[in-house]
């Protein structure tokens, strides 16, 4: 977490510099020196406010997660509460469109995932993100399915989001948001049809 007193203009500057350097050289080679040079600040500022590279990576991921959460919340606020399928689509598209699909953001996500397995604080951020996604999906799915099935289908959709996103990120052509939506909707429609027959 950045220390209190960090100028607001500096945070986005350093977050963007961190992502740009990770995109260019990867996380392991993304040194404080390279990041500070990219941001046009001294290494001392990063060390003072973030305690080094780890703290800056944590703040970068917090910003990406904040932007994702804001995108989902904004999209959902524009859709009637009883239009569950449209709201599920909004959740899906928030994970594949715009900021989240930018190359530098996607590469930072990949770096974060690899680090989160071995770092308690980053692992906690990943768990918060996962719980938030599942919570949004379950709320909407409970309007379409019984509770136990909603839980299962929410995990299925979350797995598809993660898997499609990962494959798209590793693809030189990038993430195809419309294809992702079609694949996940195909799964959802089959689940709804299956459970309606029970």
From TrEMBL:
HAMAP family: HTH_type_BetI. It holds the Pfam family TetR_C_6. PROSITE patterns: HTH_TETR_1, HTH_TETR_2. InterPro entries: BetI_C, DNA-bd_HTH_TetR-type_CS, Homeodomain-like_sf, HTH-type_TetR-like_transc_reg, HTH_TetR, Tet_transcr_reg_TetR-rel_C_sf, Tscrpt_rep_BetI. This is HTH-type transcriptional regulator BetI. PANTHER family: HTH-TYPE TRANSCRIPTIONAL REGULATOR BETI, HTH-TYPE TRANSCRIPTIONAL REGULATOR RUTR. Residues 8-68 form the HTH tetR-type domain. Pathway: Amine and polyamine biosynthesis; betaine biosynthesis via choline pathway [regulation]. It comes from Photobacterium leiognathi. SUPFAM superfamilies: Homeodomain-like, Tetracyclin repressor-like, C-terminal domain. Residues 31-50 bind DNA. Keywords: DNA-binding, Repressor, Transcription, Transcription regulation. Repressor involved in the biosynthesis of the osmoprotectant glycine betaine. It represses transcription of the choline transporter BetT and the genes of BetAB involved in the synthesis of glycine betaine. It comes from the Bacteria.
């Amino acid at each position: 977490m950045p220390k209190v007193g960090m100028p607001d203009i500096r945070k986005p500057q350093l977050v963007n510099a961190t992502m740009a350097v990770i995109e260019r050289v990867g996380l392991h080679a993304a040194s404080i020196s390279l990041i500070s040079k990219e941001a046009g600040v001294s290494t001392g500022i990063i060390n003072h406010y973030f305690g080094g590279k780890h703290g800056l990576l944590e703040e970068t991921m917090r910003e990406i997660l904040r932007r994702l959460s804001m995108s989902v919340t904004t999209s959902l606020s524009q859709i009637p509460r009883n239009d569950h399928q449209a709201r599920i689509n909004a959740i899906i598209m928030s994970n594949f469109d715009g900021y989240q699909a930018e190359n530098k953001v996607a590469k930072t996500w990949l770096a974060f995932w690899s680090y989160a397995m071995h770092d308690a604080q980053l692992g906690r951020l990943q768990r918060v993100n996962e719980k938030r996604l599942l919570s949004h999906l379950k709320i909407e799915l409970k309007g379409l399915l019984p509770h136990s099935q909603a839980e299962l289908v929410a995990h299925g959709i979350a797995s598809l989001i993660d898997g499609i996103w990962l494959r798209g990120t590793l693809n030189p052509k990038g993430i195809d948001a419309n294809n992702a939506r079609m694949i996940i909707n195909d799964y959802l429609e089959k689940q709804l049809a299956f459970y309606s027959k029970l």
